Each structure stands twice: as C-alpha cells, then as structure tokens.
C-alpha cells in the first residue's frame, strides 16, 4: 500500500514561464510531510515510510504490528489547501468533491489533487495565475499492492488516512503519475498504450432508455428506421439488458421486487427467436444480419454482466453446470456502507449471486463471446463489474479475484472480437481501474437519468471531473442521452466536446441553470476557435425511443455518413475550475477543454441551481431561484492545455475565436500580414473537429491556403483579408466574407467526404 509523490513547479521568466523540476524528493522532516519544500501534512504518523522513486517522486507506505485483512493508516493533518477529490458515493460510481481540509474528504476517495500555494497566493483564491512560482500541485493516488487495494478518507480532526504526489501542470501530473504506476505495478495500462475500438468515431444508439429490459427486435427495427428517415443513421448499436435468457427464483411468491435475476443460458431469449409472426426473426444471427444489411450498421454490441447477469448465473441450470457455479453471498466493506447504500447490492447480499468458478471464468466468457461473434455481434458492454469486490472471500480477496476476471475478459475479447471491442461499466473501484490492461472504454459516471431533473447538471460535472483520473486509463464514456429532452442541448454539447477557448474573452451566460456555450479556438496561422457548445469523446450515443428524436440537435453532432467529429482527449475541467464546485457554490461556471488536430475548443456550462451533490449538505449552499441563473465568467486561450502543440512552431499567441450560438468571431490584435485560421463546419458543435490539415504557401502573385476538411455544410474560417477566390475540389465556389469580423464562409455541397479547399489571395 502506498502514496506516489512527484514534484515540479513553474517559475516566471521575462513575463513567460519555464517549467523547472525539483530534484529533492518528498521526505518526513520534524514530523511533517515535506513536498516541494512545503509541509503538506503535519503530525505525520510514526509508522509512515517514504520510499524514494526517480525524478523527485516517492511512495508512502506504512507498517503494521499485526496482519489483518483491513488496515487504516494515518498520514497526517491536512488543512488549508484547496483540493479536488474523486470518491465512490455509490457502490458503482465516482463523483467529485472540492474542499480545503481532510475532514471534507469522504470514504472511498480514489484520487486527491491538492493545490499548494504560498501564503500570498492563498489570500487570493480567485487569481487566474495558475502557473506562478507560488503554485504547485500534489497528487494522492491510492494504489494496489499485492492482494490489497487502497482508498483515502479524512477524519473530523482533519487527519488524512491514507496517499500523495505533486507537480506543476495537474494534467501532466496525472498522466505521468499513471504512467509511473503502470510501469511499477504492471497490472494495468495507460490509455496511450491501448487500442481504442473504432465504434468511438461513429454515432450510436443504445436501447436501454428506449425499452429497458423490454427490448425486442420490432422495437429496434422501428428505432433504426426512425433515425434513417430523419437523416441521422446510427452506425453503432448497443442491444442492452433484456436479450438474455434469465430467471428470478427469489421473486417467486413475493410481491416485492428482488434483484436476484440469474442467467440460465448464454443464448438469446424467446423474443429474439422465431415465433411465427411476420415481425419476428429466426434467431439472433438472422436478426443482426438483417439490421446490418438494411440499416448499414457497422457495429452491434450486446450487454452482459461481468458475472453473467445481475444475480450471476443459475447454479442449477444444466447449461451452466460446466462452469461450476456456486451461490456466494456478497460482503460489503465499511467503505461501501459508509457512504450511500445501494439497494441492488443490499438485495444481492441477502439472496446471493450465482458465482462462476474463477478457474472456469475464461471458458464462460469464451463460450458466450464465441456464440455472439458467430451471430454477427462485434463487441460487448460488460456491466456490474464492481460486484466482484464483494465476493472475493475464499478466492484470494477482492483484488486478486477482480484481476482474474478482468484478465480472462481481456483474453476472451481478443480471441473473439476485433479491435478491442469492449465497453466497461459500473467499474469505478480501484480494483478494476488498476487491473485494466487492455480495456480502453469505460463509463465515466452514473447513468443519464431522463426522469431525474436534479441529476442533469450533476451528471455533466461528474463525468468531467472523473475524467481527470479515468481519462488516463480509458476513453471515458459519457453514457447515452435523449435528443428530445429538456436538457438535450446541454447533454449533446457535453458529449461532442472537443473544444477550447483560446482568446481572452469575457461574457455572460444568460441561459438556464443548465445552460452552456461552446467556443472553438484557432491559433494563427492555424486555428483557435472558442465555441458555444462542447461535445464529448464517446461517439454521441443516444438512447431515444423510436420517433422521439430532435434531429436539429443530432445533426450538430452527427455527419450525414453517421460519423462524429471526435476530439483528441477526454473533456476535462479547465485548470481554473479544478478546485471549485460548479454545481453548488452558486457562482462558478464549469469550463471543459479539449483539442482537435489543428484547434482547441472549450465548453462553458452553467450547472448551478439545478441539483445537489449526493451527501453534500445543501443548507450551506446559496439558495438559487427556479428562474434562470445568470453567471459571468472568463474564457482565455490559456484555458486550453497543449494548444501550442497543435498551433505549430510559428505560433506567437495570436488567436481567433468563434462562438457557436451567436455565430460571432473574435480575434486578438494581429499584424499587417495575412492572418488565417480555419474554424471548421459552423453548424456542428465541434466545428474544428472537421479540419484535418492546413497548408500555407506564398507565391509571387499572392498567398494560397489549402485546407483538408471532412464533412459537408457551411465551412468557416477567420481571414484578415477578403480572398480573391475559393476553390473546392478543383471547382470555384461562391463565398461570403464579413469584413467586420473577418468571417469567411463557403458551402460544401454533395457527399460527406474529405474535401480540399483552396483559398486564393
């Protein structure tokens, strides 16, 4: 068990900044835990041990006089530093929390990021200077060690009970720390070392909220047909819970719902088999073949639980006996029941789950996935993963059991499906996170809940903050959303976010408390666009019921060929939002940044006043009216991390900014020479995601700009001068130019394909 520590900080040089590495390693001096020359924790426990690592990093461990299955170790008193932490509020899911002392750190915390400032900086917490020499960051990551896993928690006396690390750029700190742990532990892999499945780049539909467990072939056909007629055909389908052959023997004779349903057979249930009606299908293979041909689907995934079904498998089933299943009774840890209890887990704890012998689990997965693959299925969504932590007794404990199941799952996926086609779900414990060697996609928060109005803003904020940790190990999945919902634009923008704000810009968000804005940022001579909506990494999957779509919103996410404009990284909060509460403090906006190939994008969301964090005392929070809450905030090019990496070597900080909803462009003070920045497809939330390449050349007769763009519709760019002509695929096209704002637009007609645009000056 241990805490990993790394140290870096920024020092100002001539008004700019240079990153300096502190070679002194973390240490315990005079009863204080020293990191970067500052005392981070006082009154450090005597049994705490520091084990130095390379580059000024270290692991913290502790000794115990007696062996036990559960230890709680004190690190020291932690207070006075702003922090953001991620903790499991529910059995399955993490959410974020901000605070200033250890007493605010909940049980089951799995990441703690600390901001350490000099006293002068502490006096001004609203300062936007996040890279001054007075600031550095400390990261606490609870890790796995042998059969043990670690989590953090605080006491009412502000004592931090177990993990620690520091650095200058919090995003670099997280990435580098995860990579060090990856190398040290060898039980999981960083996302850069995994293969991302291709379904991420295509629009999808999940059947869950449309049908729940009543999913059936006819309903799926109707849904796909509805999308097709509306001009937004999905290329990726998830057939969620409801297709399997199951039974709930505990429910017999009871009027109460009991979560103990178990899997009887690996094959599909009667709904997906021939029943003689015209709308039926012969079997799963016939159905999948038919919908792939008729609706041109590229990928079909099927849902199953990591133990087969919610209650495992039926031990008495003839089809399951070769996997040697036994009834096991889950045992929840104090951390599970110390926060919010989950009624499903409580029910399983009472009635038990049909647990497959760990020695047989690969055979189960291989049989199930082999059958699905033979039926035309391309991948699986594997749910209920955290349940493994409760049934490890007698099998080496929770960590070793989880690792055995996870490795078997990875092996079966590799054997039966192409391209690492796996989505993990309900897997927010460190047992699963640090056992993820190959799985590259995982749900990043609790479900999107269309019938829970107070959960909408919490959902967006949870995913953004959870992606700080999860985004270094997997591509975070934001879950489905409804396009025909009161918060549809709010959720749609978040799922499309590949964005950034690159020009210092002040504005007022005068939308609903669930309002948002997206800005595309293009750095001259490339592209810096600030846009008024933000879409996310996971291919825009929605869960509409057939015939209830808002195609106006979907067409801002999906190109006519079914592809989406996916950004490079997981959408995460901007640096100045990391230690603020965008849901309940009554004043903070949530800004989420991302990058495209040649531009950045930032989404600005007003999450205040519509919901509360679980377990958070709402009495101390300002009471907000039910009418729209108006907030003001700042957007700057500095909000976008790594923008210089896509701007090019000749970039000097000049930026062009485009606001999606107002369709207005802004720019910094530019020189007398031509300045050009491609914005992208103006009618898409993530406009800049359409720009693939840019080339500028000077000729004696004038300048030529060549852009490669994917898609169709209105293409826009910032130009400091009106061009002579615009040529699309070797054919001259009409264009419009607004001299006041410098916005150049041209219509890309015809097929949704890769286009070459040449601007002549």
Automatic annotation (TrEMBL):
GO terms for molecular function: galactinol-sucrose galactosyltransferase activity. Coiled coil: none annotated. The keyword Glycosyltransferase applies. Its EC number is 2.4.1.82. It is an enzyme of class 2 (transferase). The keyword Transferase applies. InterPro entries: Aldolase_TIM, GH, Glycosyl_hydrolases_36. Gene3D superfamilies: Aldolase class I. Keywords: Carbohydrate metabolism, Glycosyltransferase, Transferase. It catalyses: alpha-D-galactosyl-(1->3)-1D-myo-inositol + sucrose = raffinose + myo-inositol. Belongs to the glycosyl hydrolases 36 family. This is galactinol--sucrose galactosyltransferase. The lineage of its organism: Eukaryota, Viridiplantae, Streptophyta, Embryophyta, Tracheophyta. The gene is RFS2_4.
């Amino acid at each position: 068990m241990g805490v990993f520590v790394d140290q870096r900080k920024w020092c100002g040089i001539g008004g700019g900044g240079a990153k300096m590495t502190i070679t002194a390693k973390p240490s315990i001096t005079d009863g204080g835990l020293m990191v970067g020359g500052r005392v981070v924790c006082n009154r450090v426990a005597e049994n705490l041990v520091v084990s130095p690592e390379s580059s000024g990093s270290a692991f913290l461990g502790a000794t115990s006089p007696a062996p036990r299955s559960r230890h709680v170790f004190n690190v020291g008193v932690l207070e006075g530093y702003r922090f953001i932490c991620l903790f499991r509020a529910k059995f399955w899911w993490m959410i974020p929390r901000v605070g200033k002392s250890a007493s605010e750190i909940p049980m089951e915390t799995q990441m703690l990021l600390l901001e350490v400032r000099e006293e002068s900086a502490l006096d001004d917490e609203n300062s936007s200077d996040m890279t001054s020499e007075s600031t550095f960051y400390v990261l606490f990551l609870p890790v796995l060690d042998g059969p043990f896993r670690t989590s953090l928690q605080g006491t009412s006396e502000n004592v931090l009970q177990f993990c620690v690390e520091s650095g200058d750029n919090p995003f670099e700190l997280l990435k580098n720390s995860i990579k060090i742990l990856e190398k040290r532990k060898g039980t999981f892999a960083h996302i850069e070392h995994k293969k991302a499945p291709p379904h991420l780049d295509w629009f999808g539909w999940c059947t869950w909220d449309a049908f729940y467990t009543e999913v059936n072939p006819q309903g799926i056909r109707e849904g796909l047909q509805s999308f097709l007629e509306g001009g937004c055909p999905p290329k990726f389908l998830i057939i969620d819970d409801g297709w399997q052959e199951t039974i709930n023997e505990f429910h017999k004779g009871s009027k109460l719902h009991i979560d103990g349903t178990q899997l009887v057979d690996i094959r599909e249930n009667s709904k997906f088999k021939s029943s003689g009606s015209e709308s039926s299908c012969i079997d799963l293979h016939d159905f999948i073949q038919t919908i792939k041909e008729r609706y041109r689907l590229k990928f079909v995934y099927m849902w199953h639980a990591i133990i087969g079904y919610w209650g495992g498998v039926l031990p008495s089933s003839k089809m399951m006996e070769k996997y040697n299943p036994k009834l096991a009774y889950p045992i929840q840890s104090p951390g599970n029941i110390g926060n919010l209890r989950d009624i499903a887990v409580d029910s399983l704890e009472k009635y038990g789950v049909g647990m497959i012998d760990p020695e047989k689990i690969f055979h189960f997965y291989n049989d199930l996935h082999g059958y699905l693959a033979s039926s035309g299925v391309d991948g699986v969504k594997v749910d209920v993963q955290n349940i493994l932590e409760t049934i490890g007794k007698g099998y080496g404990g929770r960590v070793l059991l989880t690792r055995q199941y996870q490795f078997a799952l990875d092996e079966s996926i590799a054997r039966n499906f192409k391209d690492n086609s796996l989505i993990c779900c309900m897997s927010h414990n460190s047992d699963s996170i640090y056992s993820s060697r190959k799985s590259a996609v995982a749900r990043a928060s609790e479900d999107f809940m269309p019938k829970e109005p107070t959960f909408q803003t919490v959902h967006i904020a949870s995913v953004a903050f959870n992606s700080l940790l999860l985004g270094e190990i997997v591509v975070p999945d934001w879950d489905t959303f409804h396009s025909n919902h009161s918060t549809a634009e709010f959720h749609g923008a978040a799922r499309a976010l590949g964005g950034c704000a690159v020009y210092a810009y002040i504005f007022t968000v005068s939308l609903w408390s669930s309002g948002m804005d997206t800005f595309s940022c293009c750095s001259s001579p490339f592209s810096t666009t600030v846009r008024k909506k933000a879409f996310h990494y996971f291919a825009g999957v929605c869960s509409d019921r057939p015939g209830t779509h808002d195609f106006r919103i979907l067409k801002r996410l999906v190109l006519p060929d079914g592809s989406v404009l996916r950004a490079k990284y997981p959408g995460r909060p901007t640096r100045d939002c990391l230690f603020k509460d965008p849901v309940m403090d009554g004043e903070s906006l949530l800004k989420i940044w991302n990058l495209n190939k040649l531009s950045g994008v930032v989404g600005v969301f007003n999450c205040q006043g519509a919901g509360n964090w679980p377990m958070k005392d709402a009495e101390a929070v300002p009471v907000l009216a039910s009418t729209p809450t108006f907030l003001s905030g700042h957007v700057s090019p500095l909000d976008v991390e790594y923008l210089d990496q896509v701007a090019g070597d000749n970039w000097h900080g000049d930026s062009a900014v485009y606001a999606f909803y107002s369709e207005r462009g802004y720019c910094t003070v530019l020189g007398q020479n031509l300045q050009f920045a491609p914005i992208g497809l103006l009618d898409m939330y993530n406009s800049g995601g359409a720009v693939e390449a840019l080339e500028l050349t000077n000729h004696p007769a004038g300048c030529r700009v060549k852009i490669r763009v994917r898609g169709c519709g209105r293409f826009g760019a910032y130009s400091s001068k009106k061009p002579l002509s615009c040529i699309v695929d070797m054919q001259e096209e009409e264009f419009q130019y607004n001299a006041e704002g410098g916005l150049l637009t041209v219509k890309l007609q015809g097929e949704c394909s890769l286009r070459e645009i040449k601007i002549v000056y």
